[in-house]
Amino acid sequence: MAGDIEAATPALCRLYLGMELRKLRHGARLTARQVAEATSWSVPKITRMETGTGLVEPMNVRVLCQLYDAEAELTSLLEGYAHVTKTKKDWWQSAEFRPAIRPGFNAYLGLEATATQMHEYSSEFVPGLLQSEEYVRAIYRPAHEGLPLEEIDRLVAVRMNRQEVLTRAHQPLRLTVILNEAVLRRVVGSAEVMREQLGHLAEAARLPNIKLQVVPFSVGVHPGMSGPFITLQFPDPAIKPIVYFENLASAGVASKADDVEKYEEAFADLTATALGHEASLRVIEKARKEF
Question: Would you give the DSSP letter of residue 118?
């Protein structure tokens, strides 16, 4: 990530800064309490810096790097990370988008922006990261009837901005999506909107970091029938995988190892049940032609 600091999101910089500071502390064989005593800081402050949940001043990074006897090049890199987190905001924290994002979803966006791998099963809609703009509008218009057009535009912009994780310069998100065939067949908006959406879906699936599979109606009962879900994995082994799911009333995150394992097993079973990538693309193309 060294050459991409200015292009990286603050969320990614916070994550990588925390990872490197924790590695350096472990390498120096120091506990968080020992570091706190040496710097006259609190243990919670050390924890916030290492978990990416608090502001880290470049000067604080320099102090820690000196304590950990870090090389000058690494010190400079970590100061760069800290500078980005201090001077920039993630796009979803801007005044333009903040009113359109629910507090719980704001937290999810930070997770999505720092994840390196995502597995998603979708039973009803094309996943948000693969939706075309008109498809998004066709979803939001009836769901937010009476909302001013500019507010709809803001909601759409949030959805489209999220998709940058798939094409970012540093470690684009590796996305594996499994779709219920109903997603391809149900008309959202109009036949024209669906033709465009399915074409967009097929084009996106050609990216090297995206894998797409379809569960055809012919398989009958399958492991995804309990509902859609997303699992997220992160570059730091210390940050455990999580599961995200939402419904009309709320959204939730499951992080218990046993719960995450159940969803990962369900996704593995879906992967074995669904059509392969190329066969799935043929099903998508067939559905597109039928609209």
Answer: E
For the chain, what's the residue count? 291
Residue 257 burial class via C-beta count within 10 angstroms: exposed 0-12, middle 13-18, buried 19 and up: exposed
Q: What is the pLDDT of residue 251?
A: 66
Cα 139 from Cα 142, distance rounded (Å): 7
Name the one residue in this structure whose structure tokens are 């079973």: 269
pTM: 0.78
Instruction: Decide: residue 265, CB within 10 A, 0-12 exposed, 13-18 middle, 19+ buried.
Output: exposed
More confident position, 228 or 98:
228
Owner of token pair 């978990």: 51
In tens, the pLDDT along 72-128 reads 999 999 998 898 888 888 888 888 888 888 766 777 888 888 899 999 999 999 999
Q: Which fold has domain 2-88?
A: 434 Repressor (Amino-terminal Domain) (1.10.260)
pLDDT beyond 80 at 55: no
d(CA 209, CA 175) in angstroms, rounded, equals 6
How far is it, in rounded angstroms, from Cα 207 to Cα 221? 30
Provide CB contacts within 8 A for 166, sequence distance 6+.
129, 172, 173, 175, 204, 207, 209, 210
Pairwise CA distance, residues 124 & 8, whole Å: 33
Closest CA to 122 of 176, 170, 49: 176
The mean pLDDT of 53-71, rounded to a whole number, is 91
255 touches 108 (CB < 8 A) = no
Instruction: Break the chain into its structural domains and give their ranges.
Output: 2-88, 103-289
The whole-chain average pLDDT of the chain stands at 89
More confident residue, 110 or 36: 36
> Domain 103-289 adopts which CATH fold?
Endonuclease; Chain A (3.30.870)
Separation between Cα atoms, residue 242 and residue 121, nearest integer Å = 14
